[in-house]
Amino acid sequence: MSVASVIGEFLTLFVMALALGMDAFSVGLGMGLIQLRLKQIFYIGITIGLFHVWMPLVGMTIGRFLSEKFGMIATIAGGILLLILGFQMILASFKDDDQRMITPVGFGLFIFALSVSLDSFSVGLSLGIYGARTIVTILMFGVVSMILTWIGLLLGRRVQGWFGSYSEALGGSILLAFGIKLLLPF
After folding, report:
1. Euclidean distance between CA atoms 157 and 38, whole angstroms
2. If DSSP states are collapsed to H, E and C, what string results for 7-44?
3. Among candidates 181, 166, 158, 149, which has minimal Cα distance to 27?
4. Which single residue of 38, 85, 145, 184 could bond 21 by disulfide (Cβ 3.0 to 4.6 Å)?
5. Where are the transmembrane segments (predicted)?
């Protein structure tokens, strides 16, 4: 394999990782609008990075054996999860108490990370069919999504004070819009 083809493959994977990481950035931006501590932001980024390693790995493994039909199912499931998270955040913004139904800790973090990494599963299916380099792909996806998640969460945290009590509703609206975009591609 020539140096040019290795560089070309690396750049292609990097652009794919950026595209997948932008999902995590967008959702992180919305989720960052709720009050999160820096320690929570750190763990959220690590968790999403790990999910962006694990999900495409599973996708690539299955993609070697199955058809592309599962890619659409993963996209629909991710869209539904984002709709649920967004709706929950909007509802929580209108409640007087500080209790949330789903927060980015524990099981809520699992749901959050799963919702933003399902698209990497479907991409992994495609890459598995085409025989991409597994280690390079999953590491690229994981690191880029982790960094973009941190940027989104920190940026959301920073602007959260500008919107006051409406910041959680705005964050939920972002998640809802992103879920709709996954379900109704236009």
Report:
1. 9
2. HHHHHHHHHHHHHHHHHHHHHHHHHCCCCCCHHHHHHH
3. 149
4. 145
5. 12-34, 41-66, 72-94, 106-129, 135-156, 163-184
